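README: folding subset

This subset contains proteins for which both the sequence and a predicted structure token string are available. Records are stored as plain text. Below is the entry for D-3-phosphoglycerate dehydrogenase (530 residues), shown exactly as it appears on disk.
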Amino acid sequence: MERKKVLISERIAEEGVEILKRELDVDYRDGISREELLSIIDRYDALIVRSVTRVDEELIQRGKRLKIVGRAGNGVDNIDVDVCTRYGVIVANTPDSNTISAAEQTIALMLAGARKTAWANNYLKSGVWDRKPFRGIELYGKTVGIVGLGRIGSMVATRLKAFNMRVIAYDPYIADERFERFGAEKKETLEELMREADIITVHTPRNEETMHMIDEKMLSLAKDGVGIVNCARGGIIKETAIIAGLESGKIAFAGLDVFEKEPITDSPLFKFNNVVVTPHLGADTYEAQKRVGEDIALQVIKALRGEIVPNVVNLPTMLKEELDYLKPYITLAEKMGSIYYQLERTPISRIDVTYSGPITKNETEILTIALLKGLLSPVMEEKVNYVNARLLAQDRGIKIYEHREEQTNKRYKNLINVKIFTNRCALDITGTISRAKNPILVEINGYETETDLEGLVLIVENEDRPRVIGPFATILGDHGINIASMKVARRNKGEKAVMLINVDNEVSEELMDILAKSDGIMSRPKLLRF
Ligand SMILES: NC(=O)c1ccc[n+]([C@@H]2O[C@H](COP(=O)([O-])OP(=O)(O)OC[C@H]3O[C@@H](n4cnc5c(N)ncnc54)[C@H](O)[C@@H]3O)[C@@H](O)[C@H]2O)c1
Ligand SMILES: O=C(O)[C@H](O)COP(=O)(O)O
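--- output ---
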């Protein structure tokens, strides 16, 4: 079989490249030009980038084979995630692999700014021994204001506590418990933080809300002689406001690892001695790059094998343990979803999914997505995957409603019930996971069963009376079809029943015609494939 191909457009660790090479054809093209990238992207199944490569609609449109864009790092602001979602391309990153390095770089810049290290270094190397201009300040006893108490912000907080700093933080999106856990005093507004902090460091993503969130007006609230650090993304602290602050003396020092435009080799910021700058080096340590490279390589391989990828940006986020627990239910939901179009062809207007049992304590969104993927994959030309399944269902006018019930009936611990509506309820199925962790169907349109959703399943309606099932099974046997297991379900004695038969062999259309004519059979059998 032809090996799948991955293009790496920026430098990643050798360890990651080696992992990729075990399974894929790797084109390692660090620094490839935009034009060349656009002209060859249609040859690849995966693209690995860092923060420089612009992944936009033009690129994704041309990447006809692309299944995944792997971000070897954290921030995805160079990737149009919505476009990737629309085209069914997975975007995965490595959010936990470089956080320690970014936190340490933040503190390095803070100390370098407070102690004028870079400026003194330049002075001495130019042949001047002079200590007067370089008197700095201690971090000890000062107040640091952290904007964004996420992965990196919280690491910065715990490390600065060791310097005996008072830590205050502003992050409107996290629970109070997180402030307590990291020993940070919660500030309700950014304005409050600006007024109280001696040094301000930002650790939010860059987006519409955070771009220029610290501007001239915000900075005017700060203490005179404030220090600022930006090791997150350029522009969260507006650059022209920093320049004005440095000129007026409002800002005593700045440590900047990131810039509004990158790469940048000339900036008015560079003329200030009290500004220490680095060219986006937050994640550039051997340790972080090794972790990042290995992590993204494994995710790309998983995605190309069709397996579940842990850090998909365009899917709900889940902890590994949660994902492990949900995996069998993801398979169940996808198989349940695949049943409808194997039985019916009428367009769907609405789907109601009900999750019941302890499973509801988890992120069930991924199960609904799996269900929609299973439903749409057989009938759509476009590739359907976990990333675009919901969007494609909505585009087809299908309304999706989710319900959760903490309790289930005692017989089964967890249940997934799916009702599919056309202008009426066209299919009502319930499934669960067996003790052996296999997906099973426990009810179909009010008929109770226990059928393994595995391989081939014949489904047929029959009269509930003697001499129907036996002859039917005999016909199968006479045609070399082995029955692996069989369930017959009825609602009321003597009325209609449903047979669900796991068979080991394909059933031809000719044989279906013969089976349909068997005595007491009420519908043409259908063969479900799982
Ligand atoms: N310099 C580097 O090399 C480097 C390395 C890694 C990460 N980063 C950047 O660091 C930043 C933080 O990364 P992270 O992994 O800690 O992210 P994260 O998602 O774990 O944390 C971000 C935090 O910001 C908060 N936030 C969002 N909007 C906010 C707002 N308007 N006001 C206040 N808080 C807000 C969120 O609630 C969250 O807690 C990102 O921009 C990332 O791209 C830079
Ligand atoms: O978001 C990140 O992971 C950091 O900013 C690092 O970006 P880089 O991979 O381009 O160094």
